[in-house]
Amino acid sequence: MNRTLSFKHINKLAIPALIAGISEPILSITDTAIVGNMEVNATESLAAVGIVGTFISMLIWVLGQTRSAISSIVSQYVGANKVDKIKNLPAQAIFIITALSIIIILTTFPFTNTIFRLYNASGVILDYTSEYYKIRVFGFPFTLFSIAVFGTFRGLQNTYYPMIIAIVGALTNIVLDVVLVFGIEGIIPVLNIKGAAYASLISQCIMAILSAYYLLKKTNIPLKLSFPLNHEINRFIIMILNLFVRTLALNATLYFATRFATGYGTAHIAAYTIAINLWFFGAFFIDGYASAGNILSGKLYGAKDYKTLMALSNKLIRYGIVVGVILAIIGGIFYYPIGRVFSKDHEVLNLFYSSFWIVLLMQPLCALAFIFDAIFKGLGMMKFLRNILLFSTFIVFIPILFLLDSFNYKLHAIFIAMTFWIIARGLPLIIFFRKKFLTLSKTLKFV
């Protein structure tokens, strides 16, 4: 128990998971920063990257829930000391999710313009959006493959190799972004927004190759598809379906936020793009400790060690709040320099500066919501997570957004509504968890 809850052990899982977790937002943030500093049509290109980034995040979050489902099942079997019984499950899960990703490509590629018109994109922004998406979408299967492998490593209580893979992917993307967007005279032509898309695609391919290598070399989990189907495949699919519905609700939030921001004008969607990418960065940064909660809660639940599970949640609450406050303070200190990294347009920067403070104040609340969200995923309680997100999106976020928009609050309306959305996501999870497992831990003591 003491080792499981030690600061060293939690950070051994959390810090590599944190670094691995921020790889995806770093891809988007790098694209945002590089594109926002182009000499030609920077604001329109920045808007396009933001719209496509939102849509791709939706697709990744819908199908990328494989990571949580695999991690939950594997970690519970690690806790019960029965890993051999699910050795062939990851390969089967990866096959299912990769097949679905190819279907997504086939069904979205021909209708790219139609899809992004739903986000209020038009004119030059629509052209750039279509151009950017038609390249980036081909990285989708590689991203989902890597995510599924990361989930397997998490279940095995290992976040080190996903960290290595993520670092390589992020650094590759940064270098390629600069080279391909701005070009090298006489060697590589200036590709502008296409260069950013190709940089992300190549980085995602490299991460997938490394994921396969480390899984085969560092674990005894095979990647070869085998039959019959594992006995846990039904539970895996039910988890995925619940998470699928949940993620649709999550992305309904992002859809309405992006659609409203786009409707306010080019400068507004550009400012929103910067702010939401920084929000994503904070979310994935906090995800380091959330991942530790996910990994350890599944193991403790599998071992039926409810007392330690309660103690773990208490520690993670403290760590999460500290991380959230630190993020808010750092954002406050570098408030104005951060904006200038992403854009030189004065109108865009003024809109960003007028709203970014809400994103910063949200960080401690996000920390609590994301940590308990991850704990519930580790426990395999996907149905409860589904219902909470349906409530927070359709009963809280959307009505508040429409109400505040009617008062012409614009970007403030979006981020204030997101703050209430985060509270509605996190508070019920904390209450339910403490009620359920406090009772179980006391009952266990007297059995």
From TrEMBL:
Major subcellular site: membrane
Keyword Secreted: no
GO molecular function, one term: xenobiotic transmembrane transporter activity
Keywords: Antiport, Cell membrane, Ion transport, Membrane, Transmembrane, Transmembrane helix, Transport
Protein origin, superkingdom: Bacteria
Signal peptide: none
InterPro entries, alphabetized: DinF-like, MATE_fam, MATE_MdtK, MdtK-like
Gene Ontology, cellular component aspect: plasma membrane
GO biological process: monoatomic ion transport
UniProt subcellular location: Cell membrane
CDD domains (UniProt xref): MATE_DinF_like (cd13136)
Pfam family, one: MatE
Transmembrane segments: 44-63, 93-112, 132-153, 160-184, 196-216, 236-257, 269-296, 316-336, 356-376, 388-407, 413-433
Record membrane topology: Multi-pass membrane protein
Cell division recorded as keyword: no
Family membership: Belongs to the multi antimicrobial extrusion (MATE) (TC 2.A.66.1) family.
The protein's name in its UniProt record: Multidrug-efflux transporter
Species of the source: Aestuariibaculum suncheonense
